[in-house]
Specification:
The structure holds 2 protein chains of 2 kinds. Chain A has 11 helices and 9 strands. Chain A is an alpha/beta fold. In chain A, strand 5 and strand 6 form a beta hairpin. Classes of the chains: A alpha/beta, B alpha/beta. Chains A and B meet through strand 1, strand 2, helix 3 and helix 5 of A and helix 3, helix 5 and strand 9 of B. The complex binds thiamine diphosphate, iron/sulfur cluster (SF4) and magnesium ion.
Amino acid sequence: MVATIINPENLVYARPKGFTDTPSHYCPGCTHGTAHRLVAEVLEEMNVLDKAIGVAPVGCAVFAYNYIDTDFVQAAHGRAPAMATGIKRVWPDRVVFSYQGDGDLASIGMAETVHAAARGENITIIFINNAIYGMTGGQMAPTTLPGMKTTSSPNGRDVETQGYPIRMAELLATLDGAGYIVRRSLHDPANIRKAKKAIRTAFEAQVHGLGFSLVELLSTCNTGWGVTPIQSLAWLEEHMIPAFPLGDYKIAPEVAALKI
Amino acid sequence: MAREMWKGNEAIAEAAVRAGVEAYFGYPITPQNEVLEYLSHRMPELGRAFVQAESEPAAINMVYGAACTGARVMTSSSSPGISLMQEGLSYIAGTEVPMVLVNVMRGGPGLGNIAPSQGDYNQICKGGGHGDYHPIVLAPASIQEAVDLMPVAFELAHKYLNICTILIDGSIGQMMEPVTLPEMQPVIRKEYDWAVSGAKGRKRHLLSSIYLDVPTEEKVNLRILGRWREARENEIRFKEYYLDDAEYIIIGFGTAGRIALSAVRAARAQGIKVGLFRPISVNPFPYKRVEELCKQAQSFLVVEMNTGQMLKDVQVAVRNRVPVRFYGRLGGVMPFPDEFVTEIQEMIKNPGKPEDDPADLWYQRMIAR
Ligand SMILES: Cc1ncc(C[n+]2csc(CCOP(=O)(O)OP(=O)(O)O)c2C)c(N)n1
Ligand code: SF4
Ligand SMILES: [Mg+2]
């Protein structure tokens, strides 16, 4: 008798309007779902669901449009910022965002990402850094930590031959076109709330025409990492945060003045 | 309207503007640069979108995004850049959204050179990117024809939800000719029931080229094929010169076809009954018309600035009914009309047999030179 125990006065948590009722295809415990929800909540709260156009990546979030209930297109691997640029230039008053993984954004799509930021392209990117290629089965990503085992660095990432992880937020913050670049984490409720506020700020920056905005979200891939969901949250906190410090890397004065 | 001297690339850019192009994305590459340079001031002046992208993959994916809005969008490039665009072109074909592509071909393969070539016929006409799709390809032979085909290209792209390519080479892009430009058309942004614009007051629109359910993907492939079959029926374009009494027929597209016209005139002056058939839609290719011409032609001479790529399409139509001869120049070398005249004379002297392999015989002649 579920219907009778959920009443308006005791309802504290419901599906946001910005969500479809499609059941999730993500692995249980994966933080992609958390990030999706935050985007949907923010778009709903800003009342821009009917003005928003999303760009889905190639990666586990390829079906982001099955969940986030706005107009959507689906890009080629890494090209989402270019596609978002094309849409935004035709529809400057719409809210255009992409949602991308680390392989998509920081490896194959590095050029598209950096140049969208350099142009100050007025779009918002939600960047899911889970230190791995989730979709293709757990290969090394440009964000994989030194020593971290993946299916293509089975003995742990050897920096001598496989190089070092890329810190995207820091890198993008050096560009003048970037209006808002921050890194947050999804490993516990307090951090999830901070992440949501950052996503809100990023979209507000876009709505106010303040340039390129990106929120990097440290995320888990319990399946790819080969751990349980709970272990993955602890692993993120213990290993990823030291390598990818949380913080505000670029907040243009105009964005700070929005006081969100 | 006044006839004015225009450089090919700039005339094409202005013709696109007058045909209502709303967004252009490109990357510098010779011999196409003037399209990008011209639009870099012309588009902003009209409040339309222009971005010099960081690469061809970025440019074509900006086009992809803009095409998803239903606006008239285009890019231009030259051979190496077009190769880099194949990923985006395949996605655009798979998503069934319209765009116009201008390819100003240059010598290749590889970095090649910046001289005029027709070496990308197969890449452009037969798909280029992965998957089953058929772009519409128009091959003008003069700046005027290119200008006149610009609005047609947008109309076809939008009618068939397909890529429409204007296929020219560096000579048409770089030379200057007197042209009459069309009148400025108003920008037409149709309200498509698939385009993304924000789901205000309607159900949301999703545009994607992913269909994990294979029977659905098969249906999509059939839908794409269905539209292509319609284009094949309705969009055949070609020009014929001196064919009424012609006993010998040259077939060439674009610049090779244009040079062939000079050769036909020179041969006619010598009393040779030769005519020219110049396909304009090289995809869809005018197979039926070439087949009809077999009744009249004693033999065909196919001329191209490649190793015989369109030749294969001609052979599909001729099906060994009459002999076909081939003559090509490669790597950016432009043939002179005299070379074609000599080929015509040789062909009459020694017509060969219908089952001869024209590309092989041409190769033997080339290496013996
Ligand atoms: C051009 C191209 N190369 C490779 C692939 C295969 N591929 C699909 S997803 C993916 C990596 C995705 O990893 P990431 O962006 O980190 O997303 P995640 O799945 O971890 O969320 C790759 C390499 C592809 N689809 N297209
Ligand atoms: S593979 Fe990793 S990133 Fe992908 S859904 Fe599963 S847990 Fe999430
Ligand atoms: Mg990843």
